[in-house]
Design goal:
2 copies of one chain form a homodimer. Chain A is mostly helical and about 170 residues long. Chain A contains 7 helices and 3 strands; from the N terminus they run H-H-E-H-H-E-E-H-H-H. Chain A has a domain of about 120 residues: Winged helix-like DNA-binding domain superfamily/Winged helix DNA-binding domain (Arc Repressor Mutant, subunit A), CATH 1.10.10.10. In chain A, helix 2 crosses helix 5. Chain A is globular, with a radius of gyration of 20 Å. Chain A binds a DNA duplex (30 and 30 nucleotides) through helix 2 and helix 4.
Chain lengths: ~170, ~170
DNA sequence: AGCATATGTCAGTGTTGTTGACATTCCAAG
DNA sequence: CTTGGAATGTCAACAACACTGACATATGCT
């Protein structure tokens, strides 16, 4: 099990020998951290009739108002049927508004209502509190490294989607 | 929406003013990266009759052989009913062995069979490949920061569980 | 003996993902 | 202009995996 040993000392600077043990610790860190990452919004949502999928939809509609269903589909990486169930409840409950496209009437453009914005705020506030504490505790250099590793861990398409969102938010 | 502005320039070194935009980018990075993180094992598992829950169980049994059901329960953070469903299929299929405790006969100690080890290898190999590439691409300093932020993001209990596993693996 | 603990099981429910079938709309080739 | 294919979105049924609640069994401890 403990094979892939680092061959010698102080060689880690640019050769980067990574033992299986180091990698496994990273894997477990991701697992445990993601649990914390979703814990606060999940708690809020469980009191309502919503789940994590609703959170994701609301988040990205807020991020890119007027986005189409198809666009959202690509970002979220689920089937349109799965997304549709979530969107339907959000629309029925008056959190999301769906407007038929002007140029292409097949498309639906999605917007948050006032009530939808309120939920989005509540959820992202909770998530930001934790993120802010983690960032503060780890320090600015650590944050830069954190972001670099996460970005390298994404699939190519997700990295593109992430980049577009990142640029649009400036 | 774009309130929490950084008050002045070059103040980020130790005061750490974190704009909502910076935090949101971190949130989205976590979301997209976690998708990549689970993508490879998920692909392997979907060909078999297993899912992500089986992966987690196999991972931690491999990590701490002889662990009890209760122990696993705390690490995974699910209900015993949920874990039991997964464990039952793994035992039936001969991937996991459950041995009655010697000191306390109420406890069941869990071990991977040879076949179980094979699956664990296959899954963690796939996951390590991605992790290794991300680490290489980001560099050693980034990796240290990555780990620091993740650790700060965990719930306290999870941080403890993570620490115990980390120490045991040395 | 009596209570607490560790595990396993059955039944029911909710969220979220899947596939399959279908309606509507757009666009381009004939 | 009509027709057929592609794009988009919706409805229905099903599977995976989480949850709660209730209960059974075996064991440990006082």
């Amino acid at each position: 099990m403990a094979d892939g040993r680092a061959p010698s000392a102080q060689s880690g600077e640019n050769l980067l020998f990574l033992t299986d043990e180091q990698l496994r610790q990273g894997i477990e860190a991701m697992f445990f951290a993601y649990r914390g990452f979703t814990a606060d919004p999940d708690r809020i949502l469980s009191d309502m009739a919503y789940g994590r999928a609703h959170h994701r939809a609301v988040h990205f509609i807020n991020r890119a108002p007027g986005t189409t269903v198809n666009n959202l589909l690509n970002i979220l990486g689920v089937t349109k049927q799965s997304l549709n169930r979530v969107l339907r409840t959000l629309i029925e409950d008056g959190l999301v508004e769906s407007k038929v496209g002007k140029a292409d009437k097949r498309e639906r453009h999605l917007f948050l209502t006032e009530e939808g914005h309120a939920l989005e705020q509540k959820l992202s506030d909770a998530q930001r509190v934790r993120m802010r504490m983690a960032y503060r505790e780890a320090g600015p250099d650590a944050v830069a490294g954190f972001r670099r590793v996460l970005e390298a861990m994404m699939d190519r398409e997700m990295r593109n989607a992430y980049g577009r969102l990142k640029d649009s938010g400036t």
